[in-house]
Design goal:
340 residues; alpha+beta; 3 domains; five-stranded mixed barrel; four-stranded mixed β-sheet; 31% helix; 26% strand; globular
Length: 340
């Protein structure tokens, strides 16, 4: 009832709106919510998930009314949020709900569904297959070749390093554009997994692709994609914000391994080793902090060095090269390995 009172000013669903980009809309007169994208799962990789679009529902209980935000947190081209139905406790989290004029915005409204009235499309995602949903916003300033390669890279990564959706962590927009073009939104820049500020409490992947790299066919225009993807994988499993080298080292190592395998480029030798500072041997503890390592970790060369040293130590203990990297880049994040 609180949600109904809160959003009483809402208008009925605007059929003229492109539902591909619309967020959740609530019609209090019919007690109906229309959700443009819904992912249903139990937060594990052990059972199948379901993804559906343009889902029409009614509800009978508001568990929490969410957080209110000032208008225009979601200006275009911010893509529509995906909502998550937790099949364990039968609760639906509506990531973002708004009036058509966006004068009212609400985040993370949690409800109990009464009934599903219908949907336009649905698909099953098999157990063990990545169900975390990335929403691409690829600017036209980027060449078609880059956009095609980007989508192939993401498909490869989701196949080989699956990220599994769970309550509170199930979707992320990806903004990519050429650096000599205007950024998609004023608060988005650089290459990072970012959040907060003018973007509210949402997270996003930012891929500002250097115009120089595109014009000179520099491999970093592609290697940055697996690097940032791996950060999403890491965040899914662990908070390493206080341990820089273990956050950036594996991500930058994966970056090099990926372009070696798929593009035949030795990024380790070309772009990391030449920047290595002797400080990593003299004071490796500095690389636990972004501020302390500073420029000495240019292109994360020192963090990569420490990752490679760790892999070598594991091999000295009898693990194969593949097993060593699996422990660093997978088992550790799944809680199967602890480094002393």
């Amino acid at each position: 009832m609180y949600l109904k009172h809160l959003l009483r000013v809402m208008l009925f669903w605007l059929f003229a709106m492109n539902t591909t980009f619309a967020d959740a809309i609530f019609d209090p007169d019919t007690n109906t919510i229309i959700l443009s994208h819904v992912l249903a799962g139990d937060g594990s990789s052990q059972t199948e998930s379901i993804y559906a679009t343009n889902v029409r529902i009614t509800f009978d209980e508001v568990i929490s009314a969410g957080i209110s935000w000032p208008p225009l947190i979601h200006p275009l081209p911010w893509p529509a949020e995906i909502d998550f139905f937790d099949t364990r406790n039968q609760e639906l989290t509506i990531s973002y709900i708004t009036t058509p004029d966006r004068s009212i915005e609400r985040k993370d409204v949690v409800i109990k569904i009464d009934s599903v009235l219908g949907f336009d499309y649905s698909e099953s995602i098999a157990a063990g297959v990545s169900d975390f949903k990335f929403r691409y916003v690829l600017d036209e300033s980027l060449p078609v070749e880059w956009r095609n390669d980007f989508e192939q890279i993401m498909a490869n990564l989701q196949r080989d390093i699956p990220i599994f959706a769970k309550p509170g962590w199930y979707s992320m927009p990806v903004f990519a554009w050429k650096s000599d073009a205007e950024a998609p939104l004023p608060f988005i820049s650089g290459a990072c997994i970012c959040g907060g500020g003018e973007g509210g409490s949402y997270d996003w992947m930012s891929l500002e692709i250097s115009a120089w790299e595109i014009e000179n066919s520099d491999i970093h225009r592609y290697s940055v994609v697996p690097h940032e993807y791996f950060h999403v994988y890491q965040i899914s499993h662990a908070d390493l914000s206080g341990l820089k080298w273990l956050m950036e080292g594996p991500a930058a190592t994966l970056e090099s391994i990926y372009v070696q395998e798929h593009y035949g480029v030795d990024y380790f030798s070309q772009a990391q080793a030449p920047l290595l500072s002797g400080l990593v041997r003299e004071s490796p503890s500095l690389y636990e902090s972004f501020s302390a390592s500073g420029e000495a970790d240019d292109n994360y060369s020192g963090s990569v060095f420490l990752t490679l040293i760790l892999a070598e130590e594991l091999q000295n203990q009898g693990f194969s090269e593949a097993e060593a990297y699996r422990k660093i880049m997978k088992d550790f994040f799944l809680g199967r390995t602890k480094f002393k």
